[in-house]
Specification:
Largest sheet of chain B: none
CATH class of chain B: Mainly Alpha
Strand content of chain A: under 5%
Distance between the termini of chain B: 41 Å
CATH superfamily of chain B: Phosphate transport system protein phou homolog 2, domain 2
Number of helices of chain B: 9
Number of helices of chain A: 15
Helix content of chain B: over 70%
CATH topology of chain B: Methane Monooxygenase Hydroxylase, Chain G, domain 1
CATH architecture of chain B: Up-down Bundle
Strand content of chain B: under 5%
Helix content of chain A: over 70%
Oligomer: heterodimer
Radius of gyration of chain A: 22 Å
Largest interface: A-B, 52 and 34 residues
Number of strands of chain B: 1
Number of domains of chain A: 1
Shape of chain A: elongated
Order of helices and strands of chain A: HHHHHHHHHHHHHHEH
Shape of chain B: elongated
Chain lengths: ~425, ~220
């Protein structure tokens, strides 16, 4: 392919642009509840985000990437490899652009929804209606509705369980110290297990089921031990407890939120980063093999690039969004932030393992509603929730339109 | 514009802290009531006026907090308790301060003649009404703890205890009120104008305990569902 190198550079550039956008805006949403509840400082959050977004993208990003790369469009029916390259380029550019515009105006949009919309848009105009794997798209859209609900249910149950075992007991502080580590143990095991379940193919690490379970248990155990140490360092504050008797108990949840923030960043990296690099991976594979639909391994450097893009976005702009969240949500207690984030992280990790590109932001909103349904949050503004749902509906056609526009643009430039 | 996030937007302003702040002001306002009658008994006009000023200021401040809460309680808020119940609770709290304000206003209408039985009974009556308001504040102070447990669980028992005590105080003030009223109507020597004011004073001061009880009842409603 004569222009192969040019396409590759363009794809890398656009993918960086898009993942930068994700890092600039989306990361703050993912970790918003723990930062907003004041459980972790902004500095810590940025550090955690940098490390775990990257780790999530590299360690667990592969499955969603392959869905984005070849699940939405039937690549067999593509007329020429170039057309698919243009399509992938335009999808990246469309998603990046829309993300930039939306972030500027403060609209709550989902990266995932944009890129899926963009791919569908390209498929329709670039190849034909039959090229879009509508059944698969319908499945993805269904997952967008189901995943926030799952997040809500988990968050609801978590909130009730915290109340049952810790808050509504004779000695909430003692029980918080006792049971806190169990929560993060289960979380650690679950996330490690889901991540390892089919082995880390692109790291050439294949584990059997039993090996995975063992590793997951060790990971969970380590997390629980660290959590226990951190919790033991929380001091009782009689002054604050006089005003609000759960003040110290809430403080116990702050170190626990560090772990949910880590897992959320990990989950976000595994899902949302993968969306950004999916099309890039497709371009790389076409340029390398000169063919469409060739089965090829996902090179590690692509995942690293995606993770890197997010970290850059976080460092350049994301920290500012994080800062405002850290100072503005005064109504959220660490225990609530913990429930919402733990529920969301679990949901996202399961979804990414199933290869479903879901929206982290929507799931976290669903989880917050779940805590609210358990009568756990003072006030949730349903107008804003409605706005988020609306933007969800609007994003698909806009992503599709933008992608179609860019597709014709690239076609015109390169094929005359 | 760059620095907004939808996640922070979904958290509306909590009305619970401001409601506690409102109750704190109302309680402080009610707490001034005994001082009114002490000043009256001592014939200290300056102190009477100063106390009246403080009561009016506190009532005004409480009003501001109330309006602020109302302005930020749109129908689109999803809360663990019913919005209507919360607004009713707030209104009941506000009525306590209004009653105290009326009492202060009545006392400076004219130079009042103070019958001896009033000097005897009124301070205790005022103090008990203040106790009711204070008990009410103690219950409202538990709102954030109630929220932590989702308006269920053992926190409810604690609040119920406080409210039971409030009911006792309230019925005590009812007894005192009847005694005061009886003394007033039996007093043949009291001028008609003074009788009118005293009658109204007893009535309005008694409202402090009555509305405190009302707040308690509405708090029970929040915990009932």
């Amino acid at each position: 392919m004569e222009l192969g190198f040019t396409f590759l550079l363009l794809a890398i550039g656009f993918a960086l642009f898009m993942t930068w956008g994700v890092g600039a805006n989306d990361v703050a949403n993912a970790m918003g509840t723990s930062v907003g509840s004041g459980a972790i400082t902004i500095k810590k959050a940025i550090l955690i985000a940098g490390i775990f977004e990257f780790a999530g993208a590299v360690l667990a990003g592969g499955h969603v990437t392959s869905t984005i790369r070849k699940g939405i469009i039937n690549v067999e029916s593509v007329p020429s490899p170039e057309v698919l390259i243009f399509g992938m380029l335009s999808a990246l550019l469309a998603a990046g652009t829309w993300l930039l515009i939306a972030s500027y105006f403060g609209w709550p949009v989902s990266t995932t929804h944009t890129i899926v919309g963009a791919l569908v848009g390209f498929g329709m105009v670039g190849i034909g209606m039959q090229a879009v794997a509508w059944a698969k798209v319908a499945g993805i859209v269904a997952s967008w509705i189901i995943s926030p609900m799952v997040g809500a249910v988990i968050a609801f149950l978590l909130t009730l369980s915290l109340r049952r075992f810790i808050l509504n007991t004779e000695q909430p502080l003692v029980n918080a110290r006792r049971y806190g580590p169990y929560y993060i143990f289960v979380m650690g095991v679950l996330i490690a297990l889901i991540t390892l379940f089919k082995g880390l193919k692109h790291l050439k690490l294949e584990l059997t089921g039993w090996q995975s379970l063992l590793v997951a248990l060790i990971v969970g155990g380590l997390i629980a031990v660290v959590g226990r140490v951190l919790i033991s360092r929380v001091r009782v504050d009689p002054e604050a407890d006089r005003d609000f008797q759960f003040a110290t108990v809430e403080r116990v949840f702050a170190p626990l939120c560090v772990f949910t923030a880590c897992s959320m960043a990990f989950a976000h990296g595994s899902n949302d980063v993968a969306n950004g690099i999916g099309p890039l991976a497709a371009v790389v594979s076409i340029v390398q093999t000169g063919q469409v639909g060739q089965e090829s391994a996902l090179p590690l450097w692509i995942l690293v690039l995606g993770g890197g893009g997010i970290v850059i976005g976080l460092a350049t702009l994301g920290y500012r969004v994080m800062k405002t969240i850290g100072t503005r949500i005064t109504e959220l207690t660490p225990s609530r932030g913990f429930c919402a984030e733990l529920a969301a992280a679990t949901t996202v990790v399961v979804a990414s393992r199933l290869g479903l590109p879901v929206s982290t932001t929507h799931i976290i909103v669903g989880a917050v509603l779940g805590v609210g349904l358990a009568r756990g949050i003072a006030a949730i503004d349903l107008r804003v929730v409605l706005g988020i749902v609306t933007s969800w509906v609007v994003t698909l056609p806009i992503g599709a339109g933008l992608a179609a526009f860019f597709f014709f643009f690239f076609k015109g430039v390169f094929l005359g | 514009m760059w620095a907004r996030s939808p996640v922070q937007g979904i958290f509306g302003r909590s009305p619970f802290k401001p409601i506690q702040e409102h109750m704190r002001l109302v309680d402080a306002c009610a707490g001034e009531a005994p001082s009114l009658f002490e000043a009256l008994a001592a014939g200290d006009k300056r102190r009477l006026l100063e106390t009246k000023e403080r009561i009016f200021d506190l009532e005004h401040e409480a009003d501001k907090v109330k309006n602020e809460i109302r302005a930020h309680l749109p129908k689109s808020l999803f809360m663990p308790v019913d919005r209507r119940d919360l607004l009713d609770l707030l209104n009941a709290q506000d009525s306590i301060a209004d009653s105290v304000q009326d009492v202060a206003g009545l006392l400076i209408l004219k130079e009042l003649e103070i019958p001896d039985y009033m000097k005897e009974l009124m301070p205790a009556y005022a103090a008990r009404n203040v106790d009711a308001a204070h008990q009410c504040k103690r219950a409202i102070d538990q709102l954030d703890e109630l929220l932590e447990l989702g308006f269920k669980g053992r926190q409810v028992d604690r609040v119920e205890e406080i409210l039971a005590e409030l009911s006792c105080i309230e019925s005590e003030t009812d007894g005192q009120e009847i005694e005061l009223n009886r003394a007033l109507v039996c007093d043949e020597g009291l001028k008609a104008g003074d009788l009118l004011i005293w009658w109204e004073l007893v009535w309005r001061l008694g409202d402090v305990a009555d509305y405190s009880q009302d707040v308690g009842d509405r708090l029970r409603l929040l915990m009932a569902r």
